[in-house]
Amino acid sequence: MPDDHHGRSTRLDAVVRDRGIDAPADGSPAGASGSDTGPRVARVPEPHVHDTFSVEDIDTKRREGLLEAVLRDRDGVSAASATARNGTVGVHHDPSVSREDLRETLEACGLVVDPADRAFEVRRASQFASARVAVAVLFGLMVATPYIAVLYPTRIEWLFYDPVTVAYLQSLLDSQMATHFFVNLGALSGIAFLVACGPIIRRAIGALAEGRLTNESVFVAGVTALFAYSTAAAFTGFDGTVHYDLVAYAVAAATLWTHFGATDPVAEEHGAADPEAVDGELADGDPVAMTDGGR
Fold first, then answer.
1. Sign of CA dihedral 169, 174, 179, 180
2. Domain 11-115 part of CATH 3.60.21.10
3. Whole-prediction pTM value?
């Protein structure tokens, strides 16, 4: 049996060899021919249930096919789908086959299985975290660009050598156009704050409801106060400086810090730092739908 792309035989190869399972050719899923088109399908008996595992070390198409073949070779398993991209394995099986039995099969193949059984929650939390980073960065740039092009030259005039340009920009801000200008900036910074910092806001509110003052509570209160101050300065007779830019910068910084500094996206998403608490909360969690290898 050929080795994988790492140039070494693995425990998964050994299991396939010991069971006499035909290895998939050219990286295609086991049991599929090269001419097959469309999604893979399998007939699943109605009583069968579905489980999903978060698994490491599925890093090639060949390993996907080998692992699927090993799982389908097991009694009581009607369908299996391994996804290298998401690091997940989905199995349709008879209720008499327990999750622990399937976990032992995966671990016997030399794979590292998430002990918390949170494959779907980990993937979903990771996707939401990435989306929040995108919102924070993109909306932050959309707020920063008008400030750099219009507002900063009028506030720091000594940096700009063309007084005519500065005077023109100031005339725009003194006109009715400024209302539409600040509406866009306020909407962008407000949406970025609510979407990108959603988990932080929920945790801050929860802490305040319990009578605790946390760093996140201080952050949320500060950004909210700055947004309210800027809105008053932009749309009322209050003579102040509009700082929607600082709101956007704070949101982007907090989101990036949380994203790259967080150790558990599930804990971040559900507002829990204790893995046991997360598992308890997700005991009755969402059902997991098996996709065709995530493809």
1. negative
2. no
3. 0.54
